[in-house]
Amino acid sequence: MTLSLALTFARRELRGGLRGFRVFLACLALGVAAIAAVGTVRAGIEAGLAEQGSALLGGDAQATLTYRYATPEELAFMQDVSTTLSETVDFRSMILVGEERALTQVRGVDDAYPLVGKVALDPPMPLADALAGNGTLPGGVMERVLSDRLGLEPGDTFRMGTQDFVFSAVLTSYPDNAAGGFSLGPRSIVLTKDLTNAGLLTEGTLFDTDYRMLLPPGTNLQALQDRAETQFRDTGMRWRDSREGAGGTARFVDRMGAFLILVGLSGLAVGGIGVSAAVRAYLGNKTATIAILKTLGATRGTIFATYAIQIGALTLLGVAIGLILGGGIPLALAPVIEAQLPIPADFGLYPAPLIEAAIYGILASAIFTLWPLARTENIRAATLFRDAFGGGTALPRWPYLAITVAMIALLLGLAIWFSGTVWLTLWTAGGIAGALLILVLAAALIRLVARLLRRAARGRPALRLALASIGARGGESTSVVLSLGLGLAVLAAIGQIDGNLRRAFTAELPDRAPSYFFVDIQPDQIDGYRQILADNPAVTKVETAPMLRGVITRINGEDAQKVAGGHWVVRGDRGITYADNLPDGSSLAGGEWWPKDYAGEPQISFAAEEAAEIGLELGDTLTVNVLGRDITGTITSFRQVNWDSAGLGFVLTFNSAALAGAPHSWISTVYAPEEAEARILRDVATAYPNVTAIRIRDAIDRVSVLIEGITAATRYGALATLVTGFLVLIGAAAAGERARTFEAAVLKTLGATRGLIVASFALRAALLGLAAGVVALTAGIIGGWAVQTYIMENDYRIIWSNALWIVGGGILVSLLAGLAFAIRPLQAAPAQVLRARE
Length: 838
Prior knowledge:
The chain crosses the membrane at residues 259-283, 304-337, 357-374, 395-418, 424-450, 716-736, 756-787, 799-823. This protein has 838 residues and is of the alpha+beta class. It has 28 helices and 21 strands. The protein starts with a helix and ends with a helix. Mean pLDDT is 80; it is low at 387-393.
């Protein structure tokens, strides 16, 4: 009976329309839309990656080997399980055109390439024709950014190593692009057989070989992977198939999407403030209705159910609007989004992200509305006739508090489940809760300070009026600081993190980093290479080290992946070196270095920080696969390695006798002023065409572009939070319009001019915006420091240029909202306003 009666009351009250709930609906819809849009885009990308896994990989399956070709046994296995096999070689090299030189990522291919998909060229032609050359020289293709940089036109000649090629066409697209990961140079493609005389693929040089396979229909991919990994577990072979064709790209998309959804939850938290305020205002306007219902015998349960049903219906409406926007906008903008993505996407209406967004929206609405709804139960009818929330207890009954806590826990649990990131979710939730607590305390402090400063503002009536309004109990201070503060705090934290990353890469790193990395220096070239640099007076420092790549397969005889828990050191191949003496710039953190000319059982010095993360101890044994051969050594020392200088650093260092006989090359770093870099490159490249130079400043520029893409996406998520905060601010300003009208009428009656009233309103808004900006900036600086220090483990410095934007933005937004709702109060006639309040 109670529920039926409540439904009747709720239906009749909702006939009056949505007036008073516009901010409620806007905040809820915007928060849900942001989460749904991010989830829809992520789902579309994941669907595209899944549908085109073979094209992204370049085949149904792929085996990758480091710095070597497949053995006869490995080739026989791959030929046995596949219908077609293609071998490609991937490495970095320098392209020379006259005096111009540029770094490129080379792919040497065979006649079977590509197994899946097509290579698109400009001018259009088959890849086989482009690589056939002109009858005298073999052909090559490269991406436009590289051909433009070198000034190449089809028919021109370029050189790689000691081999000349004819440039045939611009490479516009090719399969297996997304699976290639981050590269330091644009792509070039040539035939592997045409590199025979180039001097670029000798023993010990740095290259990967990829064996792509087309498999018989119906092949069990998991069974085949298990078979390959079991048979070649210790040879360093890395196996992938079309289920993970995009490799790390898919993992990056998933992690980035999860992070952006967590940022979207901060927008829902801001919107929740507006939702709660709208419900309070709505129930406050229903004082007479609630009083009459109680007088006529309505129970507390009936009243609670009546307004809970109304709020629930409006919540469903707001969530529905958000889902339509969040699911529809990516569909409408699909062509634009797909054009910007380097990977395929298949946009559509995917239920999972929409359901996730709906759950978040419903739970957030319930959390923020239960408190004001529950308080109506505890207010006596006599009190309701005077003030909706003036009486009764400040807190609702304990069951409602318990339900609120349970819903918050449920929201956190679902966020962890959906995102798959426990600590990131907990850190985000803790950051939001901490920021809200700081903002609430700051609002109370601001009111106190305003009351204290009001006395010192005598003789400045506009400022005195503004301070009195800010310090008033129940005024706008709390709503403005909360609504603006959290959105600005998220932006401030992102701005500080972004600024510190850019400073580390683009400002500080070049000052302490080398000018060049040189790789693929052959053992018989290292002495001449050192002499060239020694003859150049501009060179201030040269570091050299032998370089091999190896895969850690065993730790104390156990599978390394299981023992290390998937630590980055055991994922894929790692750079290793050998040395007689402790390398410069390193210091022992434990154990003892091997004696000079030691020739006993292999010994290993391991980076101390990484060893602690994995749980390694002195005396542990590691099995490292180098060029298909297992080498087992004992850890006899730990080293402190400085990774921040961008110089030479190795996780693994062996004694010289353990590796000196293995084919290898040398790498080197060269330090010199920027103006001397051109001569260094020219001298080394002329003497040793096979040696590849990586200019550090160019690498930093490419990393900076990647960082810009990541931070831009994060900023968009934070802007959604700020827009939600602006809507809450508008709602608070609109709710205070009536009080502002009465204030203006009283001031006019007492003789205040319109200019004085406008000045007081403007000062009030500006001071509150300034306070919100400063508080948000403080929270953002703390958040940025925590992320930089404890997650990224980098030095932290406040980026004041970003900080000033936050403070200025807070002042401007608050001022615009405050003045927008000051127009009607200024125009109102004092007599009409004062009579209406009688």
